[in-house]
Amino acid sequence: MLTRRAALMGAAGIAALPVLAKAAKAEEIMDTSHAAPVDLSSLKRIKRKLVRPPMVHEHEQVAPAEPRIVEFEMQIVEKEIEVDDGAHLQAMTFNGSIPGPMMVVHEGDYVELTLFNSPENLMQHNIDFHAATGALGGGSLTLVNPGEKTKLRFKATRPGTFVYHCAPGGPMIPWHVVSGMAGCIMVLPRDGLKDPEGNPVRYDRVFYIGENDFYIPKDENGDYKRFADVGESYPDTLEVMNGLIPSHVVFNGKVGALTGDNALHASQGEKVLFVHSQANRDTRPHLIGGHGDLVWERGKFNNPPQRDLETWFIAGGSAGAMLYEFLQPGVYAYVNHNLIEAVNLGATAHVVVEGDWNNDLMEQVQAPVEYDAAYEGKTALP
After folding, report:
1. Is 125 a catalytic residue?
2. Active site residue 181
3. Is 265 labeled as catalytic in the residue annotation?
């Protein structure tokens, strides 16, 4: 009889099999069954339904006095996605979206996640929370085969924005991450966000931007390859990955995911919290036409935010947060300010803001007209 693990290994493809076998032994699976039990029966439990990014599930900005156990459910889905016209990725995802959905809790709360690995999947998966303490962020306690589920609980001890990602061991870790398996958790201070002077800060809405670098192979004719399943894609994808040059750098899973009909929307006067994660590479977000009023560049709310940044830095494997009050209507471009990656590879989002134009902030004094170059403009030169 064919065992689940044998089927898993076979389905991944002959070329990938030695690597997968090695990866299964790459990280120790911890046994914590002998640890002293913890009695949390007095704590209130609440359930949060995760939503598809860039939106974020309902949550309070200021927490009740007592910590709670916040329950989430998340399903791992392997599926093909179209990153751009003609470019398809055999993706691995949390809850079917890239990035995985954002979770929000408060410092001192307990996060309790039930993680399902769909039986249709081919791969082992787990979850590593950068917000958690011990057991490789929970990765050593959550490794599940297709058709299995697991439940992990951890205490959110540090406020901030943090990446989570799949980390099943060895060379599987970078492959799963750049195939889409990363998301973000935000741990708010119990009394909410504060400005540098310690004054309360509130936001009207949250936009979650997950940035991904993809490595999609091409054939001898320069056309993007397409694969039958995620296992078949591994050898060719690994070759591109090891070259360290992404084929695409995108927000929320594909080129144009947050532009055009998919653009984000806000109103003049609204304060918007942008949470930006990148699980693999450094990036430099910038809001064209706006500023970072308050920026937690490394995403950690125990540290005072910086003010008035034009561009900020998100280190690979981390998430940052920026608050901006939109003062003018119009279309704002939110980009990775490596402009080659923003324009040519896809790392651009648009925010459409409704409202009334304020000429005091900016005015077109004269519309473009032709001028007499024989007499005008010469005084501009040194």
Report:
1. yes
2. yes
3. no
Q: Is 291 annotated as a binding residue?
A: no
Domain assignment of residue 137, yes or no: yes
State whether 118 and 235 are in the same domain: no
Q: What percent of the chain has pLDDT over 70?
A: 93
Q: What is the pLDDT of residues 350-371, one digit of tens each?
A: 999 999 999 999 999 999 999 9
Q: Quick one: 37 exposed, middle or buried, by C-beta within 10 A (0-12, 13-18, 19+)?
A: exposed
Catalytic residue among 74, 92, 166, 172: 166
Radius of gyration of the chain measured on its C-alpha atoms: 23
The verdict on 179 and 267 lying in the same domain is no
Same domain (yes/no): 240, 98? no
Hey, which bits of 204-289 come out as E strands? Answer: 205-214, 248-251, 264-267, 271-278, 285-288
Task: Tell whether 248 is covered by a domain.
Answer: yes
Domains contained in the chain, number = 2
Query: Does 147 lie in the same domain as 105?
Result: yes
How wide is the angle at C-alpha 215 spanned by C-alphas 214 and 217, nearest 5°?
140
Please tell me the pTM assigned to this model. Answer: 0.91
Q: Render pLDDT for 156-199 as a digit per residue (tens, 0 to 9).
A: 999 999 999 999 999 999 999 999 999 999 999 999 999 999 99
Query: Is 282 noted as a catalytic residue in this protein?
Result: no
Does residue 370 lie in a domain region? no
- pLDDT score of 13: 42
Domain ranges, residue 331: 210-354
Q: Is 57 annotated as a binding residue?
A: no
The CATH number linked to 75 is: 2.60.40.420
- Tell me the pLDDT tens digit for each residue of 316-336: 999 999 999 999 999 999 999
Is there a catalytic annotation at residue 337?
yes
Q: Say if 305 falls within a structural domain.
A: yes
Please tell me which residue in 106, 125, 276, 350 is annotated as part of the active site.
Answer: 125
Q: How many Å separate Cα 319 from the centre of its chain?
A: 8
